[in-house]
Structure prediction request, 358 residues.
Amino acid sequence: MRTMKPFAFLILSVALILLSAAPTAAAPKLVIKYGHVAPPFHGQTVGVEHFKRYVEEKTNHEIEVKHFPASQLGGERSLAEQVQAGTLEMATITTAVLSNFVPQAAVVDLPFLFPDRRTAYAVLDSEVRDLLFRYFPAKGFMALGWTENEFRDLTNSKRPIRRPEDLKGLKIRLMESPVYLDTFRQLGVNPVPMPFPEVYNALQQGVIDGQDNPLYTSILMKFTEVNKYVTITHHILTECVQIMNLDLWNRLPDRYKKVIREAAYEVELVNRGHTAQDKLALSLRKKVDKATGKVIPGPSIYEEARRQGVQIIELTDEERQAFKDAMKPVYEKYRKIIGPEVFDAFMAKVKEINKYRQ
Prediction:
């Protein structure tokens, strides 16, 4: 049997010592899994990617953020339940779905509440935000900020929609939100609650006639391949809340809380900026001219929809007002559900902002 020479043994021993002493990448002290349902390239996805970079850099990678977009961890209700239970650290969830947990969140989804995006931002970034967010901890959530989608519009496969009565009898997919369901029942719709990932197949198979989503989202998700009528109603601005499990939040050191709050705020700015870019100029698909290297914008949202053979119905002011007038019973019902403190504060702030702008 061969034995190792003393010198060789010494070299091997030194090598093992040096290897054991070599620096290795430190494992993160905390891993935050962050889930949502927005597709790739969406402003929400871009915002959460920014959150990941910001938190990891500012904590020197003591926190690692794992980003799960496009319903990888489930639909919104499931994501909210996971955050509540502590099996998921963070998610961004529409107020429509969160209203099943925090009824006061329904105030953001009252139909035709915001006449435009500027009014919405002025309201949502005011003191009423803090008033609303105070209701979240009782349900196991720490509310950290907004993300957004867009103003919602209607698509369907049956007919053009210009008046409330045009909707009667249509099967429309809606989020699992009481205020959404009540809104469309008031318009004579047969509402079909359904998780977002199931919508395309349901449209394709005729299980539903239509759905309500921003036109941009409808194009990204290919809903306009099977729904050829779009009505630009802008009935609800889809806002979401960035939520974290409350127990986890309470355990975090203050320096981590500071970074996460900063990152959540930056998500709002990035998300809104990306949405504005998509809205105004822009470019569902960008191409690069190989000869010049210049970026060539793709078609606008409306151009892309029309290219697919979609008929776009843009409501007049009078037509839109008819839809808003039909919502009075919904407002009366939800003032009781939401509670006068939050409901009245939001209504007063919308009125104040509109008066100021006039």
